[in-house]
Every structure is written in C-alpha cells, then in structure tokens.
Design goal:
Strand content: over 45%
Radius of gyration: 25 Å
Shape: globular
Distance between the termini: 49 Å
Number of helices: 2
Strand order of the largest sheet: 39-38-43-44-45-46
Structural class: mainly beta
Number of strands: 49
Largest sheet: 6 strands, antiparallel
C-alpha cells in the first residue's frame, strides 16, 4: 500500500498548542542545589533522531503519531512538525534530509532521498539516492541509487559500484564514478583532509576524491579481499568537517574472505603514513609516494603504527578477520623505521603467551590481550615480554578502544587506552585501568559507570538492561564538566542532552527540559 510522504506543513504554534508547558526542577548532585527550568510535555513517547549546530537544532520523532518535529534549543520552541510515514531523517546545516524507504514511486523507482528546508520545512529537491556521506561545508551529498523491495524489506542497488554526488543545496548532480569494492556498498569510510579539501577513501583502493569533481587519483593497496574502515588519528584530523551530518554504512562482507589486513593512518608535517598487507608507506596529500618499505611476506596482519620523533613504530597484531570472527594470521612482530627515509632499524618477532585476542601499541610498549592474560612488550629490541595473569588484571578479557570517562568526586578522569595506560574490560562487568609502566591496575570502575563524551562539555552514562540496550525507563546520569571539573551532575530519565552557550537542553522520554546554567 502506498503511503503519504511528508504531506502536511504546520507552523510552530500548531505543535505547541498540543503540548503542556510547565516548570520543572532537577537536583544537581554537585552541591545539592536545585536547577529550575522549563518543560514542554509532548504527551507521547519522543525519540531524538538527530541534531546539528551542537544541539541548537534537534530532530524528534513520535512513533505513535508518525510525526517528525524540529526543535530550536536557542528559541526554546518548535519550528514545525510533519507527518512521516516511514523514512530516516537527518539534520544538516543546509536543510533537513529524508531517506524514505516506502513504496512511493519516483520516476519509476522506489526508495529515494529528499531534502527539506530546515527553517520552515519547505520541499527543495528529490533524487533517487541512498546517502553514504554528507558534507555541509562542501555542499555535497554522496550516495548510491537504490530501490526499496517491499517483499523482503531490503534495499536493491542500481549500478552498485557507481557513486553519485549531488549538490546539497539544490540537488544538481555534480559527478558520478565507479568506486571499486567487492561489496554492494562501494566504500564505507572517508577521511577529510582540511589542507586540500579532498577526501581520502580506503576501499579496495586508496582514493583521493575532490567533492566537486570526483576521483582525482587511485592507488592499489592490499587490505585483504575487502576494504575495511580506516582508523584515524583524532589529534590530527577529524571526519566531521565542521558538520554533524556525515555518516557511513558498514558494508556486508561475504563468506570466505579475510579482512582487517590494514593499519591506522598517521599524519605528520603534511605527510600520510599507513601500512597494508605488503608495505609501509609514506605519501603526500596527492598520494605521491615518498618512500615505501616492504613488510615480511605472509607475516602481516592487522597493524598499528605510531610516530614518535623521527621514528615510526609498527606493531603487527597477528590477527585478521573471517566472517566477523578474529583468527591468528601471520605473526606478531614489532618493527621500527626512520620517518624520513623508511630505513628499517629492526624487525623482531614476538613470543606471545596464549591465543591472541587483541593488541594495542602504546609509547615504547605494546600490549597483547590473550587467553593467558595481558602480555606487555616492554623492550622492542630484546623482545622482552611480561605476562600479567588474572591475579593482576582480574577477569579481564578484552582491551577497550573506546573513549570513556569516569567520575571521581567532582573530577572527571580519562578512562581509555592512552600512551602506556590501557583499559581492560572484564567478564565481571568491571573495567580496569592498567599502568604499563608500573605493571599494576591503578583504577577499577564498573562498566555501567563509564561516561561517553558529547559536545561542549556534556558527558552521559546511560542506564542499560541485561542485554546491554539503553533502558529508557530508568534514570541515567548526565554530567557537565569543564577542564575535568564537574559543574553539574543529574540523575534523570533522558535520551539526549546538549549544552551550548550556557543553555542546557535535555530530551526526555515524553518532553523537553531546558534551563540556562
């Protein structure tokens, strides 16, 4: 059955008329003070879908009424609401995007991408496209043509390896090009290079893409049968390009093919450093290779590289992936090279005790989590490896690579792998901070008490059920901190929070709380 798509445009007064505005008080656990604010009761289960401008614009959705709503936290009111019979919304700085997977026909195809003006909700353009990347600053949306198969509830792609670029503001096609990939998604990760304005894309090839004109250069890389997401240095580059709207789909990987033969990308002095299954590369932002060094044949696996001064260190984990599971591949080793020339100083194979589960490269140390415990490589040249078992690290079974924080009184401390401090997650629900320099666990925190970092000093710790899913029925913790000092701490039910220019906005299950702190 065909459904109507975004057919009704209402002004803000129409939605506010259906809401109950009243005052609300929250308790600040820091200092025990009461925080007063305004609450808009929306009288229905409200889900936060997307946001932009650091929370200045919030896109909400109510499934009961099939309504999408745009809320301005600056104005503390709604811009509009619209009927939404299916589809995925996304907020950009230029407009509101909707990828509608319904049975509505568009020029003979179904499943299309449309954009709406984000101030009043006026329709601007429609294209048959499933988006994979949106860049507000470059005024570009990239994606593949697709149609919705209502029989099996899945997407079917036209010319599955052809990527299309449209101008975000008016929907005009800019270019199209074949992006080689052995999966239907084409490619699944992008690295923005602010110095040139181009994108670095790692699929079956390493590609340089000008968002206005298309692929500038291609370079063959050996990453296994399929391209895999590129790990990137958050200190040097960011993928968001001053936009909250970029995202990418993870590709489906067929059976029988190895993946994960790759490294992170490191940047220094306008040069790019990375490793694939055969070589360690240094190249400029135009993908001109400055030097490369061959790696031992059939010994490589998932790798980590770090730059320290005039040297680059490479750690081979001895792992790769097949059908989503990790397996021992190649050999674990550590090698060091001259940053300017690629000259190899040493390459030493490591004797690791137990089945390797994960690895992390710190500062002059390496860490291997295995079935026997935590192996710490404390001397690269002499291959010195110390094993720390359960008597030291408890029931730890994996390394944590996610950026987390822990509350300690009115202070907030880092709780993620950094330098020679590594976080170990345990089967007992406890995360442990292990100091590789002293060989001791220096801090233990329950995993359900670790905070995720948001924007502008917001940190959240969401309550979860036994399945690990966010429990919307129970209160969660929200912290506002500046330079590690906690200024406000709330325990309340919410599914999103934003803090900008002193205005705190909390999206709760059935409404919105706002106050100026």
């Amino acid at each position: 059955m065909k459904r109507n798509f975004l057919t009704i445009l209402l002004l803000a007064i129409a939605i506010i008329a259906n809401a109950d505005n009243r005052a609300m008080t929250l308790k600040n656990l820091i200092g025990g003070s009461n925080i007063n604010g305004d609450y808009i009761d929306l009288n229905a289960n409200t889900m936060l879908v997307d946001q932009c401008h650091g929370g200045e614009m919030l896109l909400l959705y109510q499934q009961r009424n099939s309504e999408a709503m745009l809320y301005s936290s600056v104005e503390q009111g709604f811009r509009w609401k619209k009927d939404n019979q299916g589809g995925i919304f996304q907020v950009t700085r230029m407009g509101l995007l909707n990828s509608n997977n319904t049975d509505r026909n568009v020029k003979g195809n179904t499943g299309f991408f449309t954009t709406l003006d984000n101030l009043m909700g006026n329709h601007v353009w429609t294209r048959n496209i499933l988006p994979v990347y949106v860049d507000d600053s470059a005024n570009v949306v990239l994606g593949y043509r697709a149609k919705w198969n209502s029989f099996n509830g899945d997407l079917e792609f036209h010319n599955k390896n052809v990527l299309y670029a449209y101008r975000l503001s008016d929907g005009e096609e800019l270019w199209s090009d074949t992006i080689s990939h052995y999966t239907r998604w084409g490619w699944n990760k992008v690295q923005y290079l602010p110095e040139t304005g181009n994108y670095l894309v790692w699929a079956d090839q390493l590609m340089l893409i000008d968002p206005q004109t298309g692929v500038v250069k291609r370079m063959n890389v050996n990453t296994g049968r399929y391209g895999v997401p590129v790990g990137l240095s958050k200190k040097d580059h960011s993928t968001n390009h001053n936009s909250d709207a970029d995202y990418a789909f993870t590709p489906y990987v067929d059976r029988g093919y190895w993946t994960g033969i790759k490294s992170n990308i490191a940047f220094k002095d306008n040069l790019i450093y990375l490793a694939d299954g055969e070589d360690l590369y240094c190249m400029d932002y135009d993908l001109n290779v400055k030097w490369f060094t061959q790696l031992p044949k059939d010994k490589t696996s998932a790798m980590h590289i770090n730059i320290d001064g005039d040297r680059i260190t490479l750690l081979s984990t001895g792992l790769a992936y097949l059908e989503g599971c990790s397996y021992e591949v190649g050999k674990p080793f550590v090698a060091q090279y001259d940053l300017a020339t690629g000259q190899q100083y040493f390459l030493n194979y490591l004797k690791i005790d137990g089945k390797i589960l994960d690895a992390y490269l710190g500062k002059d140390k390496a860490f291997y989590m295995t079935s026997a415990g935590l192996n710490v490589v404390s001397d690269f040249q002499n291959q010195q490896v110390n094993l720390y078992g359960k008597d030291v690290i408890g029931k730890s079974n994996e390394l944590s690579h996610h950026e987390k924080y822990a509350a300690d009184g009115d202070k907030l401390m880092n709780f993620y792998c950094n330098g020679n401090e590594v976080v170990l997650n345990g089967k007992d629900g406890v995360s442990r901070l292990f100091d590789g320099n002293t060989g001791k666990v220096v801090k233990e925190v329950a995993e359900n008490q670790l905070y995720d970092k948001g924007e502008n000093g917001i940190y959240t710790c969401m309550s979860r059920n036994k399945k690990g899913e966010i429990d919307e029925e129970n209160p969660s913790n929200l912290i506002i901190a500046n330079d590690g000092n906690i200024t406000a701490h709330f325990n309340t039910q919410f599914n999103g929070a934003f803090y900008s220019d002193g205005m705190l906005t909390i999206v709760m299950k059935t409404g919105i709380f706002s106050t100026r702190l």
